[in-house]
Amino acid sequence: MDAIRGTASGSAPVPLSVLDLATVGRGTTATDALRTSVAIARQAETRGFHRYWVAEHHSMPGVASSSPAVILAHIAAHTDRIRLGSGGVMLPNHAPLVIAEQFGTLEAFAPGRIDLGLGRAPGTDGATAAALRRTESLREGADDFPQQLAELTRFLDDDFPDGHPYARIHAVPGPVQGPSARPPVWLLGSSGFSARLAATLGLPFAFAHHFSAQNTIPALDLYRESFRPSAVLDAPYALIGVSALASDDEKEARRQVLTGALSMVRLRTGRPGLIPTPEEAAAYNFSSMEREFVDSWLGNVIHGTPDDVRTGLDDLAKRTGADELMITANAHGGDARLRSYELIADAYGLPRT
User: End-to-end distance of the chain based on CA atoms, in angstroms?
Assistant: First the structure.
């Protein structure tokens, strides 16, 4: 089985996957959010979604996914077949050896099911990034990330050359313990930097369309035009993250996605908090500038009835030529998110296993 490429199911134009942010709504707890994550992963597996990823965020009250490896270990214990991965681990926040060990451990728990998606942003604000990295100098540009990635890859493959300072260091679990598969590495991005790097290295690429829609097609074009075949991949493979929420009623879908929009307004203005309730979002008095932001934000959130969402996803796949769509459902409550994935699966006739 191909460890990277998925196969479309039902009438979906491309493989469909899930990106879970483990969101914490007002009136709920992180325990509630993580229990919902387990339920979403199990549902995704039984309804024919290809993979389930979680993303690293820090110091955000409305998100419980600060530790992807920990969450994935728990999810692995509650699933059997679906691919699990990070969308992504923010590599500059960690020593490459630590990530190699964490994902080697995950691979040992769930052989052949783990993806290692890597990003170069901090996944938080500058002060929190400084606390994570124990430095006031936040370097995350072209000079550092490729070097960190190369070091991580060497640890995963256990192939530092003779004479290298790390030649006698082994990431365990890993190849030093015997022949084994290792998680495929993906590069994540919201601009052209990671698109070009993924292409140069012949790696699969995941683009954050859900918060950087204006850059999606330029980044994918750059990735495809610059791609060099590698031992990992003989042709480009790109997925895009897309925010989509289906509901039985169009008005209810709008009511739910407005909670995510208000949450983003607060995050962008330095007031991060728990995901507001639909009632709180409906009653909020948006300023003209905030309203402009919300209208722009919701313009990139596919929402409505199952037919509306299916049409929107079909159009997005056609416009971008994405090889896979990874859907994130942002809403206040877990029930709305679970219902959305179920409705999308039904709309495409995904198999129920």
Answer: 19
Taking only the tens place, the pLDDT of each residue in 199-243 is: 999 999 999 999 899 999 999 999 999 999 999 999 999 999 999
To the nearest 10 degrees (0 to 180), the angle between helices 145-157 and 96-109 is 40
Cα–Cα dist 97/70, whole Å:
16
Task: Report the distance separating Cα 113 and Cα 178, nearest Å.
Answer: 18
Could you please report the per-residue DSSP string of 237-281? -EEEEEEEEE-SSHHHHHHHHHHHHHHHHHHHTT---SBPPHHHH
In the chain, what is the greatest distance between 2 CA atoms, to the nearest angstrom?
Answer: 65
How far, in Å, CA of 193 to CA of 222, rounded?
10
Torsion angles phi and psi, residue 55, rounded to 5: -115, 145
Sign of CA dihedral 204, 205, 210, 215: negative
d(CA 185, CA 220): 18
Q: pLDDT per residue over 240-296, tens digit each?
A: 999 999 999 999 999 999 999 999 999 989 899 999 999 999 999 999 999 999 999
Question: Residue with structure tokens 């480009």?
Answer: 236
Contact residues for 88 (Cβ-Cβ < 8 A; gap 6+): 53, 55, 56, 68, 116, 117, 118, 119, 186, 188, 206
In sequence order, the 6+-apart residues with CB closer than 8 A to the CB of 296 are: none
Please count the other Cβ atoms lying within 10 Å of the Cβ belonging to residue 112: 12
Amino acid present at 244: A
What are the percentages of helix, strand and coil residues in the chain, rounded to 5? 45, 15, 40
Report the alpha-carbon angle 214-216-221, nearest 5: 125
Angle between the N-to-C axes of helices 334-347 and 306-320, in degrees from 0 to 180, rounded to the nearest 10: 70
Cβ(255)–Cβ(314) below 8 Å: no
Q: Which residues face 116 on adjacent strands? A: 86, 185
